[in-house]
Design a protein that fits this description.
heterodimer, A: alpha/beta, Rossmann fold, 2 domains, four-stranded antiparallel beta sheet, B: 215 residues, mainly alpha, MetI-like fold, 81% helix
Chain lengths: 260, 215
C-alpha cells in the first residue's frame, strides 16, 4: 500500500487556477523531488498537503487512510486536525523558527505541548519531559548542532537555523517530511550543509517530498522526480528518465533554462 | 514650617488617589484591551464592526468629555446615578485606555509573520497554543515601547479626575492656590516627574531583559 496517495488536487486563488488536478503516489521510504519553474504550483501543492491551504477538490490518503476529502464539508474536530497534521512535517523555505526559544526549545516545544494530552502526563511529567529533551538533543546532534542547542535562532547562521528546523520537524516523527525549497533562502556556501542533512535522511530511508531548484541534488537524492508546470504534473519518473531523458517539451525547456 | 508640612501631606494624599487610578486602570485596561483586539481582528463582521466603532468613538472624543458622560449619563438617561465619583473615573479611564491598548496590541499581533502561525500549525499545535506559546511573547516584546509611552501618558491623565471633583493631587494643590499660595500647584509636577522617571527606568529594564533575542 502506498504511504501517500494524492488524488486530483485542485486549488484556485480567486480566478487564478494554481493547481488543476494533481495526482501522485509514493511508497514508504521513497524520496520524491518536485521540480518546476516558479508559479508552477509546487509550493501551493505542498501547502495543500500540509493543510496550510485547503484544496478545492481532491483527496489525500496516508497509508490507505483517507485524511482529507474536499467533498466532505463536515468540519473536522480539533483532534482530527491534529492527527492528520502529525502525519506530516514541513521544513519551510524561510525556516520560521520561534525567535524567543533556544534551538533546543524550538525542537521540544511541540512534543512537550502534545505530551500534556497523555493520560499519564501528570504522574510522569518529569520523566516524559526528560525523554523529550533527550530525543531532541539526539536530533540536534544528528544535524550537527548539539553544541548550539542553547543558542537562539538570531545567533545562528541561516544554514544552522534550517538544520534546527529540520530537527524540529523530525521531533514529531512525521510519516512524511516535506521540504519547501529548503535552501532557497540561504547563501550559496551554506546550502551544502543543509543538503547533506537531507541526504543523510534519505540514506536512512526517511519518506520525503522535496521541492527544490538544485538539479544535481535532485538527481542524486531522488527516487522519483515529478515535474510540474501550470498546475499539473507534466512528467514523472526516475531521475535519469526525467532529468536526462525528458519526454515532454516543457520539461526540456525548463531543464535547458536551469543549465544555462 | 507647619504650613509646608500641611501642603506636603495634602499633596501626598492627593497623589495617592492618582496612584490608585493609575494602578487600577492599568490592571483592568491591559486585559480588556486584548479582548477588544480580538473583537476588532475577528472574522465575525458584526463583532469587528462593533469593536472598530467602539475604538473610533473612544479615541475620537476627549477623555475629559468621557469622564463627564460616565458620571452623568447613567443618572440622566436611566435614572440610576453613579454614587461614587471614583467609580465613574475608573470606568472612563479603563474604557479609554483599553481602546488605545487594543490598537497597540493589534499592531503588534499583525506584525508577527504568518510563518510563525504556520510553523506552529504544522507542528500540530492548536490555534490557542500557537497564540499563547508562540505569538504572544513576541507581541509583548514588540508592544513594550509603545505601551511604555501610553502608560506614561496615563500617569499624567489621572489628573483629569479633578474635573469630576475627585480630589487628586492637582485639586488638592488648588485649595492652596485659593488661599493665595501658588507654589503647591507648581510642585505637583515633581510628583509626576518622579513617577514617570521610575516608569521610564522600569521600561528600559524590561526592554533590555527582552533583548536576548532579535526578531
Amino acid at each position: 500500500m502506498s504511504i501517500l496517495e494524492v488524488k486530483n488536487i485542485h486549488k484556485s486563488f480567486g480566478k487564478t487556477k494554481v493547481l488543476q488536478g494533481v495526482d501522485f503516489t509514493m511508497e514508504q521510504g521513497e524520496v520524491l523531488v518536485i521540480l518546476g519553474s516558479s508559479g508552477s504550483g509546487k509550493t501551493t501543492l505542498l501547502r495543500c498537503l500540509n493543510f496550510l491551504e485547503t484544496a478545492d477538490k481532491g483527496k489525500i490518503l496516508v497509508d490507505g487512510h483517507l485524511i482529507f476529502d474536499a467533498d466532505n464539508k463536515q468540519k473536522p474536530t480539533r483532534a482530527e486536525i491534529r492527527e492528520r497534521q502529525l502525519n506530516f512535517g514541513l521544513v519551510f523555505q524561510s525556516f520560521n523558527l520561534f525567535p524567543q526559544y533556544s534551538a533546543l526549545e524550538n525542537v521540544t516545544l511541540a512534543p512537550k505541548l502534545l505530551a500534556k494530552e497523555r493520560a499519564d502526563f501528570k504522574k510522569n511529567k518529569a520523566a516524559i519531559y526528560d525523554e523529550i529533551e533527550k530525543s531532541a538533543i539526539a536530533l540536534l546532534d544528528d544535524v550537527g548542532l548539539k553544541d548550539k542547542m542553547n543558542n537562539y535562532p538570531c545567533e545562528l547562521s541561516g544554514g544552522q537555523q534550517q538544520r534546527v528546523s529540520i530537527a524540529r520537524a523530525m521531533a514529531q516523527d512525521p510519516k512524511i517530511l516535506f521540504f519547501d525549497e529548503p535552501t532557497s533562502a540561504l547563501d550559496p556556501e551554506l546550502t551544502g550543509e543543509v543538503l547533506k542533512i537531507i541526504r543523510s535522511l534519505a540514506a536512512e530511508h526517511k519518506t520525503m517530498v522535496i521541492v527544490t531548484h538544485e538539479i544535481e541534488f535532485a538527481r542524486n537524492v531522488a527516487d522519483k522526480i515529478v515535474f510540474m508546470s501550470e498546475g499539473v504534473i507534466v512528467e514523472q519518473g526516475a531521475p535519469e528518465e526525467v532529468i536526462d531523458h525528458p519526454k515532454q517539451e516543457r520539461t526540456r525547456a525548463f531543464l535547458n533554462k536551469l543549465s544555462k | 514650617m507647619g504650613r509646608f508640612n500641611e501642603v506636603v501631606l495634602s499633596l501626598c494624599d492627593g497623589f495617592k488617589v492618582n496612584c490608585i487610578i493609575f494602578v487600577l486602570t492599568l490592571a483592568m485596561a491591559v486585559p480588556l484591551g486584548l479582548i477588544v483586539t480580538f473583537g476588532s481582528m475577528s472574522n465575525f463582521k458584526p463583532l469587528k464592526w462593533l469593536s472598530k466603532t467602539f475604538v473610533w468613538i473612544i479615541r475620537g472624543t476627549p477623555l475629559m468629555l468621557q469622564l463627564c458622560v460616565v458620571l452623568y449619563a447613567p443618572g440622566l438617561l436611566f435614572d440610576i446615578p453613579i454614587r461614587s465619583r471614583m467609580t465613574a473615573v475608573l470606568i472612563a479611564f479603563v474604557i479609554n485606555y483599553a481602546a488605545y491598548f487594543s490598537e497597540i496590541y493589534r499592531g503588534g499581533i499583525e506584525s508577527i509573520s504568518r510563518g510563525q502561525y504556520e510553523a506552529g500549525q504544522v507542528l500540530g499545535l492548536t490555534k490557542t497554543q500557537v497564540f499563547f506559546k508562540v505569538v504572544l511573547f513576541q507581541v509583548i516584546k514588540r508592544v513594550i515601547p509603545a505601551m511604555g509611552n501610553e502608560i506614561i501618558t496615563l500617569v499624567k491623565d489621572t489628573s483629569l479626575a479633578r474635573i469630576v471633583a475627585v480630589s487628586e493631587i492637582i485639586m488638592c494643590a488648588e485649595r492652596f492656590t485659593k488661599q493665595g499660595l501658588i507654589w503647591p500647584l507648581f510642585s505637583t509636577g515633581l510628583f509626576f516627574l518622579a513617577f514617570c522617571g521610575i516608569l521610564t527606568l522600569l521600561f528600559g529594564y524590561i526592554e533590555k531583559k527582552l533583548d536576548y533575542y532579535k526578531g
